[in-house]
Amino acid sequence: MTCSLCNILPKHTQFDGMPICESCYSQNIKGFIEFQDKRVPKKSLPIAIDEHVYIGDEDSARDIEVLQGLGITHILIAGSYMRAYLTNMNYKQLPLEDSLEQNLTNYLSDALAYIENAEGKVLVHCAAGISRSGSIIVAYLMKKNNTGFDTALSMARNKSSRIRPNPNFERQLRDFNTQTAI
User: Does residue 54 sit in helix, strand or coil?
Assistant: First the structure.
């Protein structure tokens, strides 16, 4: 897959569903943030993983009526350039990039503790609800069900077929020891 801006075939991240090389991403981050603030959100609904946890994309985290209707009180943002849009939600943000170099394991304990300690329902989201938030959901299911990666991924995809941890995150999740996560 080539970068949408420079057409080279690098290790890449994604922005709004487009492959972007890390060099172009770094050079254009300010413009990407401005784009995110100006674009019209699409109607996107959170998907229930279980009675306590939902997954979604960035647009699903903006609709206060939907979130309140589902009983969501906490939002875990899996991304460095995204922001909290609602003032009456509890937020935690993890500075994760959808990158082949990103260390996911360093953030899993905090993410899982946030989910487990929330007194309400939690929405876990990244830009598209595919790799970063999907990886956190898989880790959550691994820990909750005391199971391995393949089983947890299958459980997650039964709820949201979009979940696809990138190869780097998949490798880290396969090595993830749920016994020491919290």
Answer: strand
pLDDT digits (tens, 9 = 90+) for 148-160: 999 999 999 999 9
Task: Provide the residue ranges of all domains of the chain, joining segments of one domain with +.
Answer: 1-39, 47-180
Sheet holding 121-125, edge to edge: 47-48, 53-56, 121-125, 72-78, 90-94
pLDDT tens, residue by residue, 93-129: 999 999 889 999 999 999 999 999 999 999 999 999 9
- Gap between the Cα atoms of 56 and 81, Å rounded: 16
Q: Which residue has the tokens 């009180």?
A: 73
CATH of domain 47-180: 3.90.190.10
Catalytic residue ranges? 126
pTM over 0.85: no
Residue 12 CB: number of other CB atoms within 10 A? Answer: 23
**Residue 20 φ/ψ, nearest 5 degrees:** -135, 130
Cβ of 43: how many Cβ atoms within 10 Å? 8
